[in-house]
Amino acid sequence: MRKQIVAGNWKMNKDYVDSEILVSKLLETHQHSAVDVIIAPPFTNLLAACHTLKGSSIAVAAQNMHFAESGAYTGEISASMLKSVGVNTVILGHSERRAYFNETDELLAKKVDAALANDIRVIFCFGEELRDRKVGKENEVVASQIKNALFHLPESSWNQIVLAYEPVWAIGTGETATPEQAQDMHAFIRKTLEDQYSTTLADSISILYGGSVKPANAKEIFSKPDVDGGLIGGAALDVDMFNAIVHSF
Ligand code: PGA
User: Fold this and answer.
1) Which parts of the chain fold into alpha helices (H)?
2) Helix or strand or coil: residue 92?
């Protein structure tokens, strides 16, 4: 059985106080379920979130990290630093990091390696832009993003990888891929994994959908056989909306 996962990506939102309020509300209202719940607050709130959620089943993720272990990289945070505050998961390859911070597949491959070397689970994001989809290149683009950043990994490393398909045109736009578009892409991704690795691996990897997931559309998207959950942006900042999405399975 694949894990069902709902992860909240807070992006650059919530200062320390507001973050603690949201984390506490999440903890109070969290009902135990089969769904793995993850939240990714900004760096400044990771330590506090880990403390508050200690002993609960809500996991804390970082939104980014550097590939080096330490050194002269002003402004950066390493995998072992994340580990040292209790963070066991990191989001890598988000389209905003690719677009605004020039993160390439090659750079992401190094970050993935550093995370895995520190036993940090990776939520690896990828997805096509609207111009790719308009000319029917979405599968090609997605396959190359996955291949370039992840296909150097041995099969045994994949138990620490979660994939998140996020069509760029659906992020923060209110426009969602239809459940059928999500299913088609997720099935294609699984087939790509099967061709490169094995059916066992392809069947074991959780593939999340991200892009304007809300309580109103989550149920239908999550009902698709190859969709194992969601990476949630805007709706993760509201405790009721986030909980409603978690309970959409
Ligand atoms: P959104 O963001 O839900 O606000 O579209 C999703 C994401 O960027 O992960």
Assistant:
1) 16-29, 46-53, 79-84, 95-100, 105-117, 130-134, 138-150, 179-196, 199-204, 215-222, 239-246
2) strand
Q: What number does the ligand 1 atom closest to the CA of 214 have?
A: 3
Q: Which of 12, 92, 126, 171 for mutating ligand 1's site (highest number of atoms within 8 Å of CB)?
A: 171
Atom 3 of ligand 1, residue of closest alpha carbon:
233
SS3 label, residue 14: coil
pLDDT, tens digit only, all 249 positions of the chain: 899 999 999 999 999 999 999 999 999 999 888 999 999 999 999 999 999 999 999 999 999 999 999 999 999 999 999 999 999 999 999 999 999 999 999 999 999 999 999 999 999 999 999 999 999 999 999 999 999 999 999 999 999 999 999 999 998 887 888 999 999 999 999 999 999 999 999 999 999 999 999 999 999 999 999 999 999 999 999 999 999 999 998
Contact residues of ligand 1, CB 6 A cut-off: 9, 166, 171-172, 210-213, 231-235
pTM of the model as a whole: 0.97
